[in-house]
Amino acid sequence: MDHPVDNPSLTHGASALLKTLLQVNRVYIKTYGCQMNERDSEAVAAMLRARGYRIVSNEADCDIMLLNTCSVRDAAEQKAIGKAGNVAARKKKQPDFVLGILGCMAQNRGAALLDALPDLDLIVGTQKFHQVPDYLDNLRAAREAGVPIGSSIVDIGEEAGSQNTIRDHLEVDTRQVSAFVSIQQGCNMDCHFCIVPKTRGDERSRPMEDIVRECEQLAAKGVREITLLGQIVTSYGRRDYVHTDGVSPFVQLIEKVHAIDGIERIRFTSPHPRGFKQDLVEAYGRLPKLCEYVHLPMQSGSNRILKAMNRPYSRERYKEIVEALRAVRPDMYFSTDIIVGFPGETEADFEETRELFEACNYDMAYIFKYSIRTGTVAAELADQVPEEEKERRNQVLLDILRRNSERRNATLLDTVEEVLVEGPDKTGERFTGRTRGNRVTIFDADPRLVGELVSLKVQRASVSTLYGSLVLSGVEN
User: Fold this and answer.
1) Which CATH number does the domain housing residue 34 bear?
2) Does residue 436 sit within a domain?
3) What stretch of H or E contains 465?
């Protein structure tokens, strides 16, 4: 069958129109922020590809640019606004170029973004990602017809069931070894520093059977590692399912994913300390596919500051959780989130955070200097900490983290670690993968090993990366 553009039966005008349509459907998606945003971008890309759009990896090649944004910190918003401002200049040379902002910043600022970025064509919030293909179709159709658009499309409304639309995965030529699976969106915790409840809405969970079906389909395509995602992932299903024999809906879901043939590893993020009841702690001892890696946000080690943050746990309870997990899995790897310089944080408060941070011996941490987020309780608090003091406290914890990581990595030298081979590294000359403890590894391998679990003898280590050689059939490479 002839390609329609090359079919001689078409008129010259129709052929030219089709060629134009095929040339203006190239989409570049740039993602800011967390793994939830990465997963949202992946789902949008899959929906667009199914609609006939082409997803490109180079922004210079695109006709449509979508920025999927983050609002957790002001710096993240400013970075996205700066990028959009720079890109908008393309419209002078390329009038049909489409620029859209999606996600948390779109939800947070809405039409007010047009004050700073009047050339935006599309502003879509966190519950309307699935509408993006229709909106782009409408923009393209109007322009092809020569109809003035008149104004930007802005949609930041809430939509019941929107959590169920993040289920599509972008088909790519290379094998996908690991995958994010969105199980829950929104947050009801109301931490006083956090804008997520505003940008993501109330807690909403997907049906368990839909999640399991998605994981089964991924396994059939060769995915070996699943990361379950949610704003408060451990709150999954608490309003929709009952505890069974003391087992929470979240742990029930992990059990079902654990039973899927082909899935070899399970991770999850981001949890809340209150979700680590005995059933979840014990799951690490009885479910071998559940990797011995935990992201456990602390935020502060001061009970006074935790109360000011509206975090419903104490430093003592937090340490109990860490100790309980290490009792079940002595080789457990931990990462955390910390905020330094929360309003009113004294040197004594920070010292309590430093002490607990050191005692927990983290392998990885995301350490943030407090950033005012308009619309949160903390934004109105007095006693804001000076920026230079935030920076000092930030560096103190980063130094501890570096020493911890170097010490942990030193214990891995000359040991053999199980690694899931993900594919070529950034240089394209070697291969990369991750250990069960979420350590990045670099090694030589055969491309046929992508997607396989292999044994790696660790020979060298940096702060964040392990280097070694594969051990195959008892013989080192």
Assistant:
1) 3.40.50.12160
2) yes
3) strand 465-472
| Residue 377 DSSP label | G
The single residue listed with the structure tokens 């190239």 is 26
Q: Which of 155, 185, 208 is at the close of a domain? A: 155
Measure the CA–CA gap between 11 and 2, rounded to whole angstroms. Answer: 15
Query: pLDDT tens, 245-296?
Result: 899 999 999 999 999 999 999 999 999 999 999 999 999 999 999 999 999 9
Range of the domain at 449: 416-476
Q: At what angle do helices 35-50 and 132-144 cross, to 10 degrees?
A: 50
Start-end of H helices in 330-445: 347-360, 387-412
Pairing of strands 465-472, 453-461: antiparallel
Q: How many domains does the chain have?
A: 2
> Which tens digit of pLDDT belongs to each residue from 398-429?
999 999 999 999 999 999 999 999 999 999 89
Domain end residue (candidates: 155, 189, 218): 155
Read off the tokens for 25.
């459907």
Residue 3 binned pLDDT confidence (cut-offs 50, 70, 90):
very low
3-state secondary structure of 275: helix
Alpha helices in 146-288 (DSSP H): 196-200, 208-220, 249-258, 278-286
Supply 445's token pair. Answer: 């391998």
Is 16 among the domain residues?
yes
CATH number (domain holding residue 447) = 2.40.50.140
Euclidean distance between CA atoms 335 and 350, whole angstroms: 19
For residues 84 and 118, what is the distance between their CA atoms, to the nearest angstrom?
10
Q: CB of 250 within 8 A of CB of 287?
A: no
Asked if residue 150 is part of any domain, the answer here is yes
Rounded Cα distance between 136 and 50, Å, is: 13
For residue 270, cis peptide bond before it (omega within 30 degrees of 0): yes
**310 phi-psi bin (left φ>0, alpha ψ -120 to 50, beta other):** left
Residue 27 lies in a domain: yes
Q: How many helices (H) and strands (E) does the chain have?
A: 15, 19
* Single-letter amino acid code for the residue at 101: I
Is the four-CA dihedral 189, 193, 198, 199 of positive or negative sign?
negative
